[in-house]
Write a structure and sequence with these properties.
The complex is a heterodimer. Chain A is mainly alpha-helical. Chain A has a single domain, classed as Up-down Bundle (Ferritin), CATH 1.20.1260.10. Chain A contains 10 helices and no strands. Chain A is globular and about 55 Å long. Classes of the chains: A mainly alpha, B alpha/beta.
Chain lengths: 252, 171
């Protein structure tokens, strides 16, 4: 695989993960448990859409086939998406949504922090911009893990179940493949494995504070970064892409 | 607007025009006071180039702000205006001017309180900021939500006068 092809894949992974998570969060709009969190969830989604837009716009330029961020978002099928499996998992209850966000945010701040030092100036700029937002997201999701975990018996049980259920999707964040290796070697990207220990430390610290138990190491799902997704992604895209599929080129 | 446009305004003059362009979501403050306008320059071709930076990457007002800036300049008779977006260094609330902070406060929004520390502190969780109520000045306030009506604000409540208010988050 050439360097440009690898960079395109890499940018899709970053952009698609932000985009798909934003779409999931948007599903809460109008029906979150309380209005403050309805707003917070929608605002987090908005930040992520902005980040996805910057990554995908750059991906389109790198690919050089005239696809802009909208075409990449709305006119690719599930097998062409490169988001991690974690972010396409359904919203479930509020604890499930928070656990998904918490795992992702704890990874995202570290990934963006590493990418700030990228040898690719555009990647470094986008990462530097996004990091400030991701940091705030992490504070919020960590706060909620603590609040629900160290809360009532019921909230604690739900938070623990969510933390356990999504655990199997976290391994993919740290698994390297050829794309990761090519980009790490050129200094554009980073070695995903290098983030595992700091991520685990941060997660355990918050889980401790939340009186929750960190799941034991176990089998980890993977495949999203290579385009092999769970069945959930297709349904999500069907909703997200409907308008452009039904009315190609439609604008407002 | 009946004010006469000079055909070849100085860069300082353009800055002063932009100081009158309100932020679409917080009209009490101008786009210059918010630190969104980063640079104004004239190219050799004669085109006026205004460099702006987005506040939050998904802020829906970003495109409207660029359009409002171009409109304000065209209204003075200058046709060739180019808007450039600059991502780095990333926008920070440290760039909000003193005047901007006073106006925010007068508008009922608590201004961002401290200098944003970068880099090393980024991976640490922080407690909610202690914020003074923009109405009664009391520091007995509490955070009700980390996000408010726009991405750049959080929701607080004053425990003294009991009024809810927006806090412009340090960023």
């Amino acid at each position: 695989m050439g360097r440009q092809d690898a960079l395109f894949e890499y940018l899709l992974r970053l952009g698609d993960s932000a985009l798909v998570l934003a779409q999931r969060l948007g599903e809460w709009t109008g029906k979150a448990p309380i209005i403050e969190e309805d707003l917070a969830t929608a605002n987090t989604a908005l930040d992520l859409i902005g980040q996805a837009r910057m990554w995908l716009a750059y991906a389109g330029e790198v690919e050089g086939k005239g696809r802009d961020e909208d075409r990449l978002a709305f006119l690719r099928d599930a097998s062409d998406f490169r988001n991690v499996l974690l972010v396409e998992q359904p919203n479930g209850n509020f604890a499930d949504t928070i656990a998904r966000q918490f795992y992702f945010d704890a990874w995202n701040v570290r990934a963006l922090d590493a990418l700030r030092g990228s040898t690719d100036a555009r990647v470094a700029d986008i990462a530097g911009k996004s990091l400030k937002e991701a940091r705030y997201h992490f504070e919020r999701s960590a706060d909620w893990v603590v609040r629900l975990g160290d809360g009532t018996d019921e909230s604690r049980a739900k938070m623990q179940a969510a933390i356990d259920d999504l655990w199997t999707y976290t391994g993919e964040l740290f698994a390297a493949d050829e794309v990761d290796r090519i980009l790490a070697e050129s200094g554009v990207g980073f070695d995903p494995g290098s983030l595992h220990a700091p991520w685990m430390d941060a997660v355990k610290q918050v889980l401790d504070e939340a009186t929750l138990v960190a799941p034991a190491a176990g089998y980890m799902q993977r495949g999203g970064k290579q385009g092999v997704h769970t069945e959930n992604l297709g349904y999500l895209l069907a909703e997200m892409q409907f308008l452009q599929r039904a009315y190609p080129g439609g604008q407002w | 607007m009946t004010e006469h446009a000079s055909i070849d305004p100085s860069v300082e003059e353009v800055w002063s025009w932009l100081a009158d362009v309100p932020d679409p979501e917080i009209p009490a403050v101008s786009v210059v006071d918010l630190g969104i306008v980063r640079d104004v320059r004239r190219e050799e071709s004669g085109a006026l180039v205004v460099t702006v930076t987005p506040t939050y990457s998904g802020c829906p007002a970003t495109e409207l702000i660029a359009a409002e800036i171009a409109r304000a300049i065209r209204a003075r008779g200058i046709e060739r205006v180019l808007l450039e977006t600059r991502l780095s260094p990333a926008w920070t609330t440290d760039w909000i001017t003193e005047r901007g902070r006073e106006k925010l406060s007068g508008y009922g929004i608590a201004p961002p309180g401290y200098k944003v520390v970068d880099a090393s502190a980024i991976l640490r969780r922080r407690a909610p900021d202690p914020v003074a109520c923009p109405r009664c000045g009391s520091r007995r306030t509490s955070l009700t939500s980390r996000f408010g009506s726009t991405p750049c604000k959080a929701l607080y409540r004053c425990d003294e006068c009991l009024e809810p208010f927006d806090y412009f988050k340090p960023h």
